[in-house]
């Protein structure tokens, strides 16, 4: 009985800190080449990041690191300030372990030319994120709204849903 009473608060505590879902809604006619990261908002580590190619006119839900396919097949993890980068293919038990410790931090992306998918458009380079959510982490960049030449982008977090949204629109 004593063990059960100890395990219940631990379970509740671990569930209260979870990565949350990332919704990427690209309503534009441009594909996105992006680098996305998640980190601990309190001490900045672990830091988990990857590069993704995201198609035009696509909406997707990424529930956690292991559910990011087909947009990526691996993540990189840095466990502390002086730590080495550790690559993890998906699925991975290590990604399951670090997922509850992180929150979606930022997304840097470029819109890609439809006629030449390897060529960025003339639009600005977007740096999306909420620096106030990661005030202890430096450097933290990003904006919650960016008005580009070809597209606009929004980044926001809804605590009641534990969900982060990236919205790109014409």
From TrEMBL:
This is Uncharacterized protein. The lineage of its organism: Bacteria, Pseudomonadati, Bacteroidota, Flavobacteriia, Flavobacteriales.
């Amino acid at each position: 009985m004593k063990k059960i009473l100890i395990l219940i608060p631990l379970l509740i505590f671990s569930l209260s800190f979870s990565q949350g879902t990332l919704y990427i809604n690209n309503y534009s006619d441009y594909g996105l080449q992006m680098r996305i990261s998640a980190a601990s908002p309190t001490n900045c580590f672990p830091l988990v990041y990857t590069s993704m190619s995201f198609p035009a006119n696509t909406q997707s839900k990424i529930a956690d690191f292991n559910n990011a396919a087909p947009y990526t097949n691996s993540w990189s993890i840095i466990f502390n300030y002086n730590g080495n980068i550790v690559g993890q293919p998906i699925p991975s038990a290590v990604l399951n372990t670090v997922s509850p410790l992180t929150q979606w931090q930022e997304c840097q992306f470029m819109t890609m030319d439809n006629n030449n998918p390897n060529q960025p458009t003339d639009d600005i380079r977007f740096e999306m994120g909420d620096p106030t959510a990661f005030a202890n982490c430096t450097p933290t960049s990003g904006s919650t709204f960016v008005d580009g030449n070809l597209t606009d982008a929004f980044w926001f977090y809804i605590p009641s849903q534990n969900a982060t949204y990236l919205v790109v629109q014409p």
